[in-house]
C-alpha cells in the first residue's frame, strides 16, 4: 500500500512555507511569531517540518502583551509546544503596551518592536507572520472604510523587509483544519470576539453579511483586489521615485527644492506621490502626513495664485518661489 500523505490542509500550509523560504541560504535562521491561535500555530508546525528539510534553522517567538490574566502562562504554553515541535531558539517576549493610537495600534507597535529586537539579536534572516486570506480581506475593508486610497486597499504585503506572510493566499479554515489534523490545540483569544475592536466587527458582522448578500467568495475577491492594487501602487511608486529624481533641483540638509515645470507634466497620482516623498525626505513624519496635507502642497503646483506657504507636520513649510517648490523644516527666508 502506498504511504498516506499529510492532510490536505497540512500540505497546503507546508507548501506555502516552503515557497516563502525558497530563497534563503542554507543554515539561515527563520523565526515565526506565534500567538497560539490557529493561524500562527499551523504556521509554526509547518515551519518546524519544512525548515530542516531545506537546510534551514527554525525558531519561534511569542509575545506576552500582559493585557489579560494568565497571559504569561499562555505564552509559556506556546513556548512548550514550540519545543515539542523541535523549534530552537524559542523565546517569550514580554512587552508593555502603551495607549497611543488606541489599544490595537499600541499592542501592534509593542509587538513588532519586540519581534524586531529579537530578530536582530538572533540574526534571523526572516520572521514569518500568520496572516491569512481572511485577515487580508478584513484589512482591505478597513482601508476602504477609511477612504485612504489604493495603497491602503493593497492590504498587507507578502514580504515587508524581514517579515514574510506565507499564508496570505490560504483561508482561515485551512489553518484550523491543519491544527486539527496535527492534534494541535489553538488558543482562542477572547479579544478576537470583542466587538469593541473594529476588526472584530468586520470579521464577525460585516464579512458574513457580505457573504450572505453577495454570495460566497467575497474574502477571496477582496484579497485578489488587494494583490492587484498592490501591483498598481508599486508601479506608481516606482514611477514617482524616478520622477522625484528628475524634479529635484537640490537636497541639502533636508531642504528639498523641486522644479515646478517638471511637476506640472506628471499625472496627478504620480505628482502627489512625488510631493509626499519630498515632504518625508524634508523631515515630515510619515504617520502624520495626511492626504489633506499633500493636496494642499499640490495646489501650490496646480492652482498657483500667489498663496503663502503651506504648513506641514514636523515644523515643515512648503513654499513656491520662482518656478520652484521648496520644502524645509526651518522657515524659508
TrEMBL record:
<keyword id="KW-0436">Ligase</keyword>
<keyword id="KW-0963">Cytoplasm</keyword>
<comment type="function">
    <text>Ligates lysine onto the cytidine present at position 34 of the AUA codon-specific tRNA(Ile) that contains the anticodon CAU, in an ATP-dependent manner. Cytidine is converted to lysidine, thus changing the amino acid specificity of the tRNA from methionine to isoleucine.</text>
</comment>
<keyword id="KW-0067">ATP-binding</keyword>
<comment type="similarity">
    <text>Belongs to the tRNA(Ile)-lysidine synthase family.</text>
</comment>
<dbReference type="InterPro" id="IPR012795">
    <property type="entry name" value="tRNA_Ile_lys_synt_N"/>
</dbReference>
<dbReference type="GO" id="GO:0006400">
    <property type="term" value="P:tRNA modification"/>
</dbReference>
<dbReference type="InterPro" id="IPR015262">
    <property type="entry name" value="tRNA_Ile_lys_synt_subst-bd"/>
</dbReference>
<dbReference type="GO" id="GO:0032267">
    <property type="term" value="F:tRNA(Ile)-lysidine synthase activity"/>
</dbReference>
<feature type="binding site">
    <location>
        <begin position="35"/>
        <end position="40"/>
    </location>
    <ligand>
        <name>ATP</name>
    </ligand>
</feature>
<dbReference type="Pfam" id="PF01171">
    <property type="entry name" value="ATP_bind_3"/>
</dbReference>
<dbReference type="Pfam" id="PF09179">
    <property type="entry name" value="TilS"/>
</dbReference>
<dbReference type="InterPro" id="IPR012094">
    <property type="entry name" value="tRNA_Ile_lys_synt"/>
</dbReference>
<feature type="domain" description="tRNA(Ile)-lysidine synthase substrate-binding">
    <location>
        <begin position="258"/>
        <end position="325"/>
    </location>
</feature>
<keyword id="KW-0819">tRNA processing</keyword>
<dbReference type="GO" id="GO:0005524">
    <property type="term" value="F:ATP binding"/>
</dbReference>
<feature type="domain" description="tRNA(Ile)-lysidine/2-thiocytidine synthase N-terminal">
    <location>
        <begin position="31"/>
        <end position="204"/>
    </location>
</feature>
<keyword id="KW-0547">Nucleotide-binding</keyword>
<dbReference type="InterPro" id="IPR011063">
    <property type="entry name" value="TilS/TtcA_N"/>
</dbReference>
<protein>
    <recommendedName>
        <fullName>tRNA(Ile)-lysidine synthase</fullName>
        <ecNumber>6.3.4.19</ecNumber>
    </recommendedName>
</protein>
<dbReference type="GO" id="GO:0005737">
    <property type="term" value="C:cytoplasm"/>
</dbReference>
<dbReference type="InterPro" id="IPR014729">
    <property type="entry name" value="Rossmann-like_a/b/a_fold"/>
</dbReference>
Amino acid at each position: 500500500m502506498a504511504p498516506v500523505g499529510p492532510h490536505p490542509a497540512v500540505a497546503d500550509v507546508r507548501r506555502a512555507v516552503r515557497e516563502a523560504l525558497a530563497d534563503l541560504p542554507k543554515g539561515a535562521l527563520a523565526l515565526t511569531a506565534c500567538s497560539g491561535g490557529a493561524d500562527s500555530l499551523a504556521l509554526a508546525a509547518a515551519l518546524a517540518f519544512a525548515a530542516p528539510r531545506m537546510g534551514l534553522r527554525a525558531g519561534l517567538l511569542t509575545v506576552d502583551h500582559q493585557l489579560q490574566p494568565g497571559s504569561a502562562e499562555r505564552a509559556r504554553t506556546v513556548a512548550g509546544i514550540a519545543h515539542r515541535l523541535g523549534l530552537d531558539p524559542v523565546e517569550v517576549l514580554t512587552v508593555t503596551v502603551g495607549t497611543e493610537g488606541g489599544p490595537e495600534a499600541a499592542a501592534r507597535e509593542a509587538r513588532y518592536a519586540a519581534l524586531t529586537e529579537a530578530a536582530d539579536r538572533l540574526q534571523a534572516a526572516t520572521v514569518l507572520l500568520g496572516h491569512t486570506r481572511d485577515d487580508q480581506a478584513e484589512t482591505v475593508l478597513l482601508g476602504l472604510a477609511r477612504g485612504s486610497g489604493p495603497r491602503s486597499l493593497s492590504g498587507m504585503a507578502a514580504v515587508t523587509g524581514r517579515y514574510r506572510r506565507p499564508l496570505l493566499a490560504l483561508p482561515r479554515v485551512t489553518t484550523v483544519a491543519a491544527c486539527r489534523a496535527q492534534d494541535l490545540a489553538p488558543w482562542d483569544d477572547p479579544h478576537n470576539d470583542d466587538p469593541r475592536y473594529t476588526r472584530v466587527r468586520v470579521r464577525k458582522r460585516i464579512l458574513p453579511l457580505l457573504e450572505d448578500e453577495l454570495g460566497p467568495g467575497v474574502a477571496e475577491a477582496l484579497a485578489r483586489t488587494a494583490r492587484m492594487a498592490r501591483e498598481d501602487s508599486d508601479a506608481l511608486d516606482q514611477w514617482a521615485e524616478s520622477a522625484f529624481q528628475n524634479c529635484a533641483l537640490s537636497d541639502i540638509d533636508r531642504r528639498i527644492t523641486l522644479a515646478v515645470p517638471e511637476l506640472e507634466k506628471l499625472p496627478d497620482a504620480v505628482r502627489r506621490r512625488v510631493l509626499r516623498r519630498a515632504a518625508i525626505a524634508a523631515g515630515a513624519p510619515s504617520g502624520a502626513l495626511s492626504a489633506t496635507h499633500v493636496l494642499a502642497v499640490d495646489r501650490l503646483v496646480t492652482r498657483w495664485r500667489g498663496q503663502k506657504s503651506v504648513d506641514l507636520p514636523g515644523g515643515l513649510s512648503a513654499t513656491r518661489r520662482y518656478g520652484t517648490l521648496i520644502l524645509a523644516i526651518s522657515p524659508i527666508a
